[in-house]
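Weekly modeling sync, notes
Attendees: AB, CL, MP (scribe)

Item 1: holo prediction request
CL wants a bound-state model with coenzyme A before deciding which constructs to order. AB pointed out that an apo prediction alone won't tell us much about the pocket. Agreed to run with the ligand included and paste results into these notes for async review.

Input as submitted:
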Amino acid sequence: MEAYRGADRAGQRMSWRLDEPRLVREGDALRVREAGADDLEAILAIEETAHPTPWIAEVFEREMALDWSYLWLFERGNKAVGFLVFWVIHDEVHILNVAVDPACRRQGIATAVLVYLVEIAEEHASSFVTLEVREHNQAAIALYESLGFEIIGKREQYYADTGEDAFIMSCIL
Ligand SMILES: CC(C)(COP(=O)(O)OP(=O)(O)OC[C@H]1O[C@@H](n2cnc3c(N)ncnc32)[C@H](O)[C@@H]1OP(=O)(O)O)[C@@H](O)C(=O)NCCC(=O)NCCS
């Protein structure tokens, strides 16, 4: 991950729960902040572009209510450009969902936020970050591999909508 470390965030306290917006990249003032109910509309608009079977509002609301679940919104200026949902369970960080507005993809946004997540995970002495990804989702697999994740297993027919297998990917910290 070392090669990806970027912005100087000196003075910003690292925490899973973002009590205030955090700058993750200086060049375009990319920030992440804790999402709230008021952000659902923007999140759903991005979610609907992102997955074959998008999560509905109730799924996001359920995640927001869980102590171990985190929902971060990515913003440039006042515009929502993506989001990340992850769980923290003991020493594991598990990514459930990440998506970037199609108009803003291939600009390093997901990379910048995931690097930030890993920095916080390291600060909290987490052991690894894991996730499942659709076997045909080349963009996401390439993203994770570029960050040092490796495929460590497969769950057959994990996705009921398409019958696709899931690759289990992991990044050891
Ligand atoms: C996957 C996703 C989150 C990536 O977001 P992003 O901000 O565009 O990603 P980045 O710009 O940080 O890309 C980093 C690297 O990932 C790889 N990558 C990203 N998108 C790619 C694509 N469409 N094709 C091939 N490689 C891709 C590249 O290696 C890229 O580096 P490069 O642009 O220098 O070549 C975005 O494509 C998305 O929202 N997809 C739909 C939702 C989804 O599939 N989420 C993942 C579920 S597990």
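Recorded for review: The helical segments are 40-50, 57-65, 109-123, 138-146.
Action items: CL to compare against the apo run; MP to circulate these notes.
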